[in-house]
């Protein structure tokens, strides 16, 4: 196991966090993770701070935050004056967006369920309510 003082390779960090090496490079390019120091050999050298930051990014993604929102959360996490209040506000906004998406998916599900219930499952395609709804240019499904 690596100690906080032991530098790690990108592969070791990827394995510890459970992400792909390319994901780490991508986060570096996107500015979510600072460019690591380079060894004399040119290899990237990471520390525990990179592991913590990658875990933060991964958990935030799991909660549905976008990369821009994660960038904002990372900046706010260093703001000792307003950070916690602003982070709570961002989390509330994310929750509201999730609730909106759930409501939208519920409407879609209910509409699809009605179409399935109305379809006899046999006969001519012109009589199929599912196909008629998909072909309807008005969108009155």
Automatic annotation (TrEMBL):
Residues 7-76 form the HTH merR-type domain. Residues 88-115 form a coiled coil. It comes from the Bacteria. Keywords: Coiled coil, DNA-binding, Transcription, Transcription regulation. One of its GO terms (molecular function) is DNA-binding transcription factor activity. The keyword Nucleus does not apply. InterPro entries: DNA-bd_dom_put_sf, MerR-type_HTH_dom, MerR_fam. This is Heavy metal-responsive transcriptional regulator.
């Amino acid at each position: 196991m690596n100690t906080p003082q032991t530098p790690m390779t990108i592969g070791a960090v990827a394995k510890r966090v459970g992400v792909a090496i390319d994901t780490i490079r991508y986060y570096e390019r996107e500015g979510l993770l600072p460019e690591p120091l380079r060894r004399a050999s040119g290899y990237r050298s990471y520390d525990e701070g990179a592991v913590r930051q990658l875990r933060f990014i991964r958990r935030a993604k799991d909660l549905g935050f976008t990369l821009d929102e994660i960038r904002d959360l990372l900046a706010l996490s260093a703001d000792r004056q307003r950070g916690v209040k602003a982070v709570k506000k961002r989390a509330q906004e994310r929750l509201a967006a999730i609730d909106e998406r759930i409501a939208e998916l519920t409407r879609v599900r209910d509409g699809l369920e009605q179409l399935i219930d109305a379809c006899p499952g046999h006969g001519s395609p012109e009589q199929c309510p599912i196909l008629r709804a998909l072909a309807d240019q008005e969108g009155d499904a």
